[in-house]
Specification:
Blueprint: H1 7-34, H2 40-69, H3 73-96, H4 104-150, E1 157-158, E2 163-164
Antiparallel strand pairs: 1-2
Helix pairs in contact: 1-2, 1-4, 2-3, 3-4
Length: 165
C-alpha cells in the first residue's frame, strides 16, 4: 500500500490554516481604514470579495485536508478547482488592481497568500495525477483478478468446447 498523499501540499495547507486568519485581520483592518476614500463600486467589490474569500477559503482548506490525508480524489479535485478558479484570480485582483489604493502591508500579505495558492495549485495537480493513476491501476488489477476468479480452471468441463481441458 503506497501512500499517495503529498507532504509538501499538506505542509502548505497546515501553514495556510494559520496564515489565513492573519491575512483576514490585516485585510479587514486596512479595508476599514481606506473604506471612506474608495469609490462606491470598489467598496461593493471589496466587501463582496471578503465574504467570498472567507467562505471559499474555509471550504477549500477542509477539502484539501480531507482529500490529501484520506487520499480522496473528489475532495482533492474540489480543493484544486476552488484554489484555481475563485481564490487565485481574486487574490491576484486584490494584488494588482491599483484602483484599490493598496497599502504596502496589504500588498505583502497578498503576495504571501498568492504564493500559497500558486504552490497549492501545482502541488495538488501533481498529487491528483498520481492518485488517479494509482487508483486506476488498482481498479484494473482488481478487475483482472475478479475476471480470473470467474474463469474456469484447467480440468473443468467447458461447455464451449464440449470437452474437459
Amino acid at each position: 500500500c503506497e501512500i499517495l498523499s503529498s507532504l509538501p501540499l499538506q505542509m502548505s495547507l497546515y501553514f495556510n490554516v494559520y496564515f489565513f486568519p492573519f491575512w483576514w485581520l490585516i485585510t479587514v483592518a486596512i479595508l476599514y481604514l481606506k473604506y471612506p476614500v474608495l469609490s462606491d463600486y470598489y467598496k461593493f467589490i471589496l466587501v463582496t470579495i471578503m465574504i467570498l474569500v472567507s467562505l471559499t477559503e474555509l471550504i477549500r482548506l477542509y477539502l484539501g485536508y480531507v482529500g490529501n490525508l484520506l487520499e480522496k480524489v473528489p475532495e482533492l479535485a474540489g480543493f484544486w478547482l476552488l484554489t484555481l478558479l475563485p481564490q487565485l484570480p481574486v487574490i491576484l485582483f486584490l494584488l494588482f488592481n491599483e484602483g484599490l489604493k493598496i497599502h504596502s502591508l496589504e500588498r505583502a500579505v497578498h503576495i504571501v497568500f498568492a504564493a500559497f495558492l500558486s504552490f497549492q495549485v501545482v502541488a495538488a495537480f501533481f498529487t491528483l495525477k498520481r492518485m488517479v493513476n494509482t487508483l486506476a491501476a488498482r481498479f484494473r488489477l482488481t478487475e483482472f483478478h475478479r475476471l480470473e476468479e470467474q474463469r474456469p480452471g484447467p480440468g473443468i468441463y467447458s461447455p464451449a468446447t464440449g470437452s474437459s481441458s
